[in-house]
Write a structure and sequence with these properties.
By secondary structure, the protein is an alpha/beta fold. The chain contains ten helices and eleven strands. InterPro entries: Sce7725-like.
Length: 311
């Protein structure tokens, strides 16, 4: 199974809706969503998932982005309460923080009896045996960020209950510094032989959460593709790269580059909703904004992985 780790920004949630029809039946792709914004858009996305009989893991103790402010986080808890109670669509997930204790884990497990739950570990400070005891009797999946060592926990938890969240996207400070093609990972092929529950990544985004910025210089489009048993990513970057330059000019350049690459390697990229949107924009000259650009890249990545899984 595949668990794309996403933050609840509009672009990423829209991407989930774009590709939810590719999640499989029975479901094999489950978004793992960390809220960072007020709840309204997340509720809308989950309502759409429910209409398609799909579910998602949702972190229920969010503390990043706008939810780092206690008043906003309190409002989120209130607004999300009704959706959280719906076991058909929300699998409650607890994310470890620096202050997390085993008592916190036990309290979380007790709050959701009989439900599928998730734990996101950011460190290896909790003793494996103690964590296994706290989770005993629950239907759990433990997700390991790169800062935690899953190897320490496999014996106690069982590999079939664990998922590594890969963070292989190499982030640059400036879009103009990306170039060419890069290896993105192969845990989408190695997890099954290792007896793991599935695999996870941050799609084609950096794993560390960062609030959105202002104007960009160059426009970047990062397109994932499968090559043998590996995932790769190709960076398409506009040559026009000043913040004051017209955004339409930048999109025209980068979408033209994608068209030329597809002519040379027509089978490289899956025809995802994101890639189809880019082609429509190129042909019409009506371009998206930066949020839409991220949406299309995320949806293309998830669609590509889905196709690699045979969905």
């Amino acid at each position: 199974m595949y668990f794309p780790y996403l933050y609840s920004r509009q672009a990423e949630l829209n991407a989930v809706s774009d590709v939810s029809s590719n999640f499989g039946s029975p479901q094999r792709i489950f978004p793992l969503i960390e809220p960072v914004e007020p709840a309204a858009k997340l509720i809308s996305t989950l309502t759409d998932l429910k209409s398609k009989a799909k579910a998602a893991y949702v972190i229920v103790n969010p503390h990043q982005g706008k939810l780092s402010k206690s008043a906003v986080a309190t409002a989120w808890q209130s607004d999300f309460a009704a959706m959280l109670a719906d076991s058909a669509v929300v699998y409650p997930t607890f994310k470890e923080t620096a202050a997390t204790t085993l008592k916190d884990i036990a309290s979380f497990v007790a709050a959701y009896p009989g439900r599928k739950i998730g734990i996101v570990l950011a460190t290896s400070k909790l003793a494996p045996g103690d964590l296994a005891k706290a989770l005993s009797g629950s239907d759990y999946t433990v997700f390991f960020l790169a800062t935690a060592s899953s190897a320490n926990y496999l014996a106690a938890l069982g590999p079939a209950r664990t998922v590594d969240v890969s963070d292989n996207f190499r982030s640059e400070a400036r879009n103009k510094d990306y170039s060419g093609e890069e290896w993105l990972g192969n845990n989408h092929t190695s997890w099954s032989a290792a007896g793991r529950r599935g695999f996870s990544d941050f799609t084609m985004l950096p794993g560390t959460y960062k609030d959105g910025g202002g104007p960009v210089g160059a426009i970047a489009i990062h397109l994932t593709y499968a090559l043998g048993s590996d995932l790769w990513i190709q960076h398409f970057i506009s040559t026009t790269d000043e913040q004051t330059d017209p955004q339409a000019t930048k999109f025209k350049e980068v979408l033209g580059d994608i068209q030329r690459q597809r002519a040379v390697t027509p089978s490289r990229f899956e025809l995802s909703p994101g890639l189809s949107s880019y082609e429509t924009q190129r042909a019409s000259g009506n371009y998206t904004n930066l949020s839409g650009n991220k949406r299309q890249q995320v949806s293309h990545h998830i669609h590509t992985v889905a196709k690699h899984l045979g969905l």
